[in-house]
Amino acid sequence: MRLIRETVGEIKSQMMSLTDHIEKCNLRLDEYDTKLERQEKRILTLEYAITEIKDRLNTNAQSQLRNEVEIVGVPETPNENPAHTFRVISQKLGIPIEEYDLDFTIRAGPPRKHSQNIDNAEDNSQQPPRPLIARFLSRNKRDEFLKVGKMKQRSFNAQDMGLGSAANKNIDIYFNERLTQENRHLFRAARQQTKACGYKYCWIKNGVVYIRKQEGNPAIAIKKQEDLHQLHNAFNNNQTIS
Questions:
Q1: Exposed / middle / buried, residue 59 (Cβ in 10 Å: 0-12, 13-18, 19+)
Q2: Rounded Cα–Cα distance for residues 21 and 92 (Å)
Q3: pLDDT digit string, tens, across residues 95-154
Q4: What residue spans define the domains of the chain?
Q5: Half-sphere exposure of 242 (CA within 13 A, CB side)
Q6: Domain 68-177 in CATH: superfamily?
Q7: Which residue among 91, 177, 210, 216 is buried most deeply as judged by most CB within 10 Å?
Q8: What angle do CA 82, 178, 113 make, to 5 degrees?
Q9: pLDDT at 118
Q10: What are phi and psi of 110, to 5 degrees?
C-alpha cells in the first residue's frame, strides 16, 4: 500500500507538472494568436492603403489624359507624319483643326518594323496599326472632335478617310477617349461582364466606366474590379445593383 501511495503521489506530481506545462503552452498560443491577429490587421490596413494609393495614382494618371483622343484602326505607313494623318481625318469629319489646337500627335507604342521587300508587303498590311494619339490644348475642342468622331465612326472606314491601301481599305476606324492601362482593362472586363449579365449599355465618359441595364434605367459607375464582382453576385442572386 505504501508503494502504491508513493506511485500515485508521483503520478499526481507528474500530472500537476504536465497540467502546468499545458497551461503555459496555452498562454503562449493565446499570445501568438493575439500577435497573429494584430499582424493580420496590419496587413489588411497596409493592403487597403496600397489600394488607395493605386486608385489615387490611376485617377491622377487618367486626369493627365483628359485632353487626348485615341483613334483606332488608322492604317500606318513607313515614315508617316502623324500630324498630317490626323489633319486628313479631321477634314474628312468636317472639323477644322489648326496647329495651335494641338499639343502633339503621335502613334502609341514602340515603332513597327516595316518590311522593304515587296514580297513581304502583305505582312505589313496584316500588322494591326498602332493607335493614333492626339492631345488637344483645349478640353472643349477635344470633346467636340470626339463627339463628332463617335457619331460618324460607324459610317467611316480607312477608304472613306482616304487612308491605307487596297489591302486595308475596309478597316473600321474608332474614336475613343484615351485611357490608362488599368482603366482599359477595367473597361474590357466591364463589357464582358455586362454582356453576361444582360446589361445593354457599357461606355466611357471622362475616363469613368458606366453601365446601364436598359433604356430608362440609371447609369451605374464602375470604378474598380470589386464593382464588377458586386454586379456578378447580384446577377446570380437575381438582384439589382445601384
A1: middle
A2: 87
A3: 888 888 999 999 998 887 655 554 444 455 567 889 999 999 999 999 999 999 988 877
A4: 1-64, 68-177, 181-236
A5: 0
A6: L1 transposable element, RRM domain (3.30.70.1820)
A7: 177
A8: 40
A9: 43
A10: -70, 155
- Determine if residue 79 is left, alpha or beta; phi over 0 gives left, psi from -120 to 50 gives alpha, anything else beta: left
Pairing label, strands 208-212, 201-205: antiparallel
Q: Distance (Å, rounded) from C-alpha 70 to C-alpha 224? A: 22
Distance CA 210, CA 28 (A): 52
The predicted pLDDT at position 169 comes to 59
Residue 64: how many CA atoms within 13 Å on its side-chain side? Answer: 7
Q: What is the pTM of this model?
A: 0.73
